[in-house]
Specification:
- By secondary structure, the protein is of the alpha+beta class.
- It contains 4 helices and 5 strands.
- Strand 1 and strand 2 form a beta hairpin.
- The longest helix has about 55 residues, at about 1-60.
- This is Type IV pilus modification protein PilV.
- It comes from Deefgea chitinilytica.
Length: about 240
């Protein structure tokens, strides 16, 4: 009888150990799935940033006149100067809830450099709107409490690209520099600063993993939270 009870105790201990092992395996599997999703979202953000970088670098006038105004740089062996490309960092964009699309234009009161061609400026605005719509369709961006989209992407000028807590789509907004971490157009460093592409997207993680990141945590008992991640890329 005593031996039978001992065997039963050993079986119960074995079941407990096995259950703990299964729980640990399940936890590891969940972590692996989150890591894979995080890697996938970051890869998408990197592709979107690369796409925008290519558009910025290629948006230059295709035909030039010898008398056309431009900057001091010249084509090799030619007296024809290179016109200034549009300033992608100074484009204002708005989201239209009725069409669920972004539209972009020059900020009120802003006049592009006279050495920038009109067609190039218009193309920059259209490309930026298309890019934002692509981000909206490709990444989970989340929503603020007022129903506005939380994430998104911006092109700005910045000497410290790895900062900023959320996108602001109007470079003349008073909170632009504070929230995006980018330079204001009135900054002394603005003119010579490189372009930086920043993309914010929402990602689910655990409270233990999220650390000090800002969260949209409604249920304090829930172990999972939604955080706003940022991907940054500089154009040197």
């Amino acid at each position: 009888m005593k031996q039978s009870g001992t065997i039963m105790l050993e079986v119960l201990i074995s079941i407990v150990v096995l259950a703990l092992g299964i729980l640990g395996l399940a936890s590891l599997q969940a972590y692996s799935l989150r890591a894979a999703q995080s890697s996938n979202l970051r890869s998408i953000a990197a592709d979107l940033a690369s796409s925008m970088a290519e558009q910025i670098q290629t948006n230059r006038p295709k035909s030039l006149a010898a008398t056309e105004a431009g900057i001091d740089s010249k084509y090799y062996g030619s007296s024809i100067v290179i016109p200034i490309p549009p300033n992608y960092a100074h484009i204002k964009c708005e989201y239209d809830n009725s069409t669920e699309k972004y539209t972009c234009s020059k900020p009120t009161g802003y006049t592009p450099n006279s050495k920038t061609k009109t067609n190039s400026q218009k193309l920059a605005e259209e490309e930026t709107a298309y890019w934002l719509n692509l981000i909206n369709a490709s990444l989970p961006l989340g929503f603020n409490s007022d129903g506005t989209i939380k994430g998104g992407g911006i092109v700005c000028k910045d000497n410290t690209p790895d900062d900023g807590i959320s996108p602001v789509f109007d470079p003349t907004d008073t909170d632009y520099a504070t929230k995006t971490g980018c330079l204001s157009s009135t900054s002394a460093e603005y003119e010579n600063a490189p372009y930086v592409i920043k993309i914010w997207y929402e990602e689910q993680t655990t409270k233990k993993e999220q650390g000090t990141l800002s969260t949209d945590d409604i249920d304090e008992k829930d172990k999972n939270v939604r955080v706003l991640r940022r991907f940054s890329s500089s154009l040197l």
